[in-house]
Amino acid sequence: MLLLQKAQAVYTDALQAGHLTPIETRAEIIYQRNIAFSIKIAAHWQQRKAARHDTAQHAQVQHNPFLPFENALHVADIDPQHVCILNKFPVLQPHLLLISRTFEAQVSPLTLQNFQAAQCLMQQLGQEGILFYNAGPSAGASQPHRHMQWIPTPAYAGINPLEHADLLGPHFLAQPGLDAQALYLCYQQGLQQLDWQPGCAYNLLLSRDWLWMIPRRAAAWQHIAINSLGFIGSFFARNQLEADQLREFGFIQALQHVVGWHRSPIRKLDHHPEQ
């Protein structure tokens, strides 16, 4: 069974058993600068926010959902150091997480072993997709435990970094192919060329054709969170007002406002964690 087929079977079982909490949305496709942008608008966000607040009030300590992870979300063991699980709070399906078995800090540099696991995952999935990594809270990370994420390649055109990367500001773009050693060397080159320093957040996106790194100065534009997926043209809005604000201001302009280094140390997470 292909890993993707197994993930779909695990998703069905976990959903029926109540182990998943999908975020209900409706999608709009909006064209700006001849680029198709997708914005997913949440339904019932206030109710979900209230439920999360109640859960946080009862929590005594901040919980790491990856140590241990929920067995019902387990998809596959990738290697001795990494495991693939479902995202417990998916906006789309399938949405997979590649997590380290032991704690590795999300803000620390990726290792060759991380890229080896990423290569293995993408090869086993048997479908085109995007692997992405939010390195630090200012890049959209909500968990301090190392986790990469994978989604299928969006059906809409979206932002193609080979065509549109220069519109957004500073970045590093390479085409090393899907080879772990080459990816790791490109990643190190990207950190060097972007003058990365500890405490600097960034987004990393990886397809079979390219590796793309974007430095980040802020997690959001006008309180609208932007993670790695914003850079392929996929946005999330908590309500219609946020969606309208993004549309009116411009998606490219919103991305430009969050790109670039912010040199202060990465702050400790102060919000209720979610995957």
TrEMBL record:
Residues 176-258 form the ATP adenylyltransferase C-terminal domain. InterPro entries: Ap4A_phos1/2, Ap4A_phos1/2-like, Ap4A_phos1/2_N, ATP_adenylylTrfase_C, HIT-like_sf. Gene3D superfamilies: 3.30.428.70. Residues 3-157 form the Ap4A phosphorylase 1/2 N-terminal domain. It comes from the Bacteria. Coiled coil: none annotated. PANTHER family: AP-4-A PHOSPHORYLASE II, PUTATIVE (AFU_ORTHOLOGUE AFUA_5G14690)-RELATED. This is DUF4922 domain-containing protein. It comes from Pseudaeromonas sharmana. The lineage of its organism: Bacteria, Pseudomonadati, Pseudomonadota, Gammaproteobacteria, Aeromonadales.
